[in-house]
Amino acid sequence: MRRLFLGPDPNVPEEVLRIISDNLPNGILFPGLRNLFWMIRSYIPPFYHIFLSPSLTAFSLSCSLLSDKILSSILSLIQHLRTLPLRALYLDCHKVSRDMESAFSSAVLQCGHSLKALFISAPLSDAAVQHIARLPNLTQWYVTDTPPRVSDLSRLSGAFPQLELLHLQSEASPEWLPLIGATAHRTYPKQESHMQAHRGPCQKLTTLECRREVPVDIAFVAPIMLFHGLVYLTLHSSCSFDGGCTFNLTDDDTEEIATALPRLKHAILGSVCYANSCQTTVSSLVSFSTHCENLGRLEIHFNTTNLRDDLDSISADPRLDNLPPLTKRAPLFLVLSEAPIQISGEDIGPVVTGFLRIFPSLKEFIGDDPALDKLNAWLVLEE
Predict the structure, then answer these.
(1) In terms of C-beta density within 10 A (0-12 exposed, 13-18 middle, 19 or more buried), how is residue 208 classed?
(2) Is the pTM of this model over 0.90?
(3) Mean pLDDT of the 72-97 span
(4) Which of 169, 246, 258, 304 could form a disulfide with 291 if both were Cys (CB 3.0 to 4.6 A apart)?
(5) What residues have CB less than 8 Å from 306, skipping those under 6 apart?
């Protein structure tokens, strides 16, 4: 059985169901159930505990805006849930009370060494968050809250020893970045080399995503550059319709990023600037091409106002003379989103040639501008 839909039965009074459920042990319906995904829309049965199998290793609860009565039942469900043996815990409620926040924190505090993936859509107590930081096998964490107020960072030294994937879900959650970076820096004595001093446990981190729009500047990116093992990096940053741009990096900044994160395969640093108000140019593309040999997908703000002239100029950059052989590079997809590409027919060939000079393995331009169809057609001819 893959799905089960439950709803109220008008022929059976809820009081009767409650009496029956009080005499049934937890998990009696499916005692061997290991993975339970529960989407609550408008009803939760009073006998919910019969689904809470002692064999559960993954539990997911998702609910929308619901009545206080149903939220009270969800609170009771969470209190009955045994989280100690869980490997994955996902609790997503759009409306939570203080009592539910406390119940969520209690559920987290009971999680044990088995937990590998965690998502909680509610503020947690400082004790619960610090417990998360020390879970020895946690590899995936979806963060919706700010970090705890920790005056002595040494108390979090060695935090997140196995963390591989970090999703920052809200505007507040990026505050975790400098804290995690600081705890990584404290892992080794200061007298060790620069690179060693930043190889803390969190250097297992390979995937980082900020899902909310945030201004991207060097202060925001600096702690990210401490995670030298990053393979997948996604920062959501775009332009507003009034011409404002939330991407405040320069070409020098992107050179630092690409140098610090050479393992990147998937780099999304915000939609390409359709207002052309950003400071970055095609030189930022050269930085990623020369330092990130495994790059397969790139999206970054850069100015396209004088695209052909910029490409002609950058083609003489000596850094491009030492690119790895084409056979050692992955096919690259360059995402241009809604970038304004204003080029004449005679410019198409030189523009494609310029991009191929930067990215010899360029496979496709991805975006919405009709000009990209012409560029892709020419790109096929160049293969």
Answers:
(1) buried
(2) no
(3) 88
(4) 258
(5) none
